[in-house]
User: Fold this.
Amino acid sequence: MGPIAVRRKYNNQNNTNYFSYSTIPQHLKAPNNDTFSRSNTKDISFGITVKDFPFDYDKFDFIIPNNVLRRVKPNIEKIVQEIEIPSTDGLKLKSWFIAPKENKPVFLFLNGTNSNRTHQEEVVKFFDENGFGALMPDYRGFAENTGVATEKGLYEDAASSLSYLNKKGYKNKELVLWGYSMGGGVARTIATMNDFRCAIIDSAIKNEYLIKKHFLDTGIANKDNISPTAVEKFKKQLFSDEKIPFDTSENIKNIKYPVLFLHSKGDHIVPHWMTEDQFALSANKDSKLVISEGTDPHFYRKWTFPYIKDFVDSIK
Assistant:
């Protein structure tokens, strides 16, 4: 995990109503039961509790570039090829590529916030064990990549990654788009502009406003620590014509190919109702929704692997 950047404590106790959202559009409202107990909510892949989520409270941004590179095990080093993807604005994005076995599809894996490719060794092993190819790009500002991570920049990096695969000879119909967490918000944008074999929307946020509100309502983020500047930005995002970041769920209506939607009820970082809402927008009759009744937390992807393999194999 990256460092927890709580620089000061702000006294917002007289400002508790600025998170009220009774007047906002229906599609931005959360269910009334969006609550959970933080007891026993340890993430088994990171060994942390959800209350340790690393916010910069001066900004309260959802995009959290993770620059902590984990030591890569030798068996993983043998699977992945370290590459650089040229971005449209001149950056070189360090990423991993895995060559597919014969007649196997290639995944474009779009990661979540506060993560990078070195955190996804289990995903790498899943690709390798099933003969799948994969491109696992790190966004600008993430891992050792230069540049500043912004919503627009993340979309550009996803498009550059797709272009990289196309130039290597992989057609979109051979590709599986997998967007995880924040990466699901990114995937929803490029999914409508390209005709992929299929897509996977995995534990994805609906938009930045709703996930921030979930963090605040449940206590993952402490309201009293948020700077007045961040509060004003939050209110402006919500009550003005300014676009809410990652508010791309409506794009799902325009995805014509099958989409697999995945979420666990054990996920306390992103609540599972967000994925249920996204599935309800799907236009393809072959799209599927899997909501795990288990306790698998947000950062643990292994439970999804059998569902993803079966789904991808079923698409001819």
